[in-house]
Specification:
The chain is an alpha/beta fold. It folds into 2 domains: 3-126 and 240-265, Rossmann fold, CATH 3.40.50; 132-237, Dihydrodipicolinate Reductase, domain 2 (2-Layer Sandwich). The protein contains 7 helices and 12 strands. Helix 3 links the parallel strand 4 (74-77) and strand 5 (97-100). Helix 3 (81-93) packs parallel to helix 4 and helix 5 packs parallel to helix 6. It binds NADPH dihydro-nicotinamide-adenine-dinucleotide phosphate (NDP) and the ligand O=C(O)C1=N[C@H](C(=O)O)C[C@H](O)C1. This is 4-hydroxy-tetrahydrodipicolinate reductase. Its EC number is 1.17.1.8. Residues 4-130 form the Dihydrodipicolinate reductase N-terminal domain. (S)-2,3,4,5-tetrahydrodipicolinate binds at residues 158, 167-168.
Length: 268
């Protein structure tokens, strides 16, 4: 059966990639987009932005009007945390299943969406990373953390990224923490002579964020123990790397009646 899809953020790097992917998939129908700057136009009016095709798909500025007027099955959000949170709440209220790639939600925002999804019995997937290789990296890191509790994360992204650390790094740390003994790393008396030298820290795990032009999305998880090291590394070289994961979420969200956080929970 054809899946009717709404995408928010179509002019963005990920949004434009998702519009192209949905357009090419015979069983998907892109019925609308949400874009705060182009309400009343259609995708063909803004074609060529990040390679958008000339599609006769209406654009809504107001997400609520879009969800009210368009009878969609799935809503895909690829925007920024503030707008993404509001969009996702509204989609759940209107019974449209959200697939959210937007990163940077707070724990409170995640908990609020979890509650809303549960209350309405409407499935929702929030995936910090849609690339299957990245999800495997996180799972391998989780396994390794049981045996090698000394670990640091280096994540590297393009220099247009708004949030740091990346959603992937935060999720990797949380997954490792499920398996890792609590541990103070480094010298107990260590001092930063330059603020931030040791990166950010969550549950004793340090995360270092690199932002450079030319990069897409890359992460290394470095484990150390006396006399040995282990590095688990993943690279996304382009945004097509995320699209199989988006498709998987669009397929799986239909069967859910609650929020799932992370692609690893729905991999076949
Ligand atoms: N889960 C995953 O696998 C991946 C997730 N991401 C995440 O997806 C999100 C988008 O990434 P990317 O495409 O690279 O980012 P871009 O900056 O290229 O695109 C973001 C889009 O969101 C729009 N936007 C910004 N602010 C608002 C707002 N307040 N309301 C509505 N729309 C807004 C922007 O439009 P405007 O011009 O109006 O600002 C733009 O079209 C990020 O959170 C990123 O971390 C990225 C890659 C993979
Ligand atoms: O902004 C990006 O580009 C990416 N964001 C996600 C994140 O914050 O982890 C996923 C991927 O790393 C690309």
């Amino acid at each position: 059966m054809t899946k009717k899809i709404i995408i928010a953020g179509p002019r963005g790097k990920m949004g434009a990639e998702a519009v192209q992917m949905v357009d090419k998939e015979p069983s998907y129908d892109l019925i609308a987009c949400i874009d705060r700057k182009n309400g009343g136009k259609s995708i063909k009016d803004i074609q060529d932005t990040n390679g958008l095709p000339a599609l006769d798909v209406p654009i809504f500025e107001n997400p609520e009007t879009c969800f009210q007027e368009m009878d969609a099955d799935v809503f895909v959000d690829l925007t920024v945390p503030g707008a993404g949170f509001e969009h996702t709440k509204l989609a759940l209220l209107y019974g449209i299943r959200p697939v959210v790639g937007t990163s940077g939600f707070s724990d409170d925002q995640l908990a609020a969406l979890q509650d809303l999804s549960m209350t309405h019995g409407t499935g929702c997937i929030i995936a910090p990373n849609f690339a299957v290789g990245a999800v495997l990296m996180m799972q391998f890191a989780k396994t390794a953390a049981k045996y090698l509790p000394d670990v640091e994360i280096i994540e590297k992204h393009h220099d247009q990224k708004l949030d740091a650390p990346s959603g992937t790094a935060v999720k990797t740390a949380a997954m490792m923490q499920e398996n890792r003994e609590n541990k103070q790393q480094g010298h107990p008396d260590e001092k930063e002579t330059l603020d931030g030298a040791r990166g950010a820290e969550t549950d004793g795990i340090h995360i270092h964020s690199v932002r450079l032009p030319g990069l897409v999305a890359h992460q290394e998880v470095l484990f150390g123990s006396p006399g040995q090291g282990l590095t688990i590394k993943h690279d996304s070289y382009n945004r097509a790397s995320f699209m199989e994961g988006v498709k998987l979420c669009i397929r799986k969200v239909e069967d859910l009646d609650r929020l799932v956080y992370g692609l690893e929970n729905i991999l076949d």
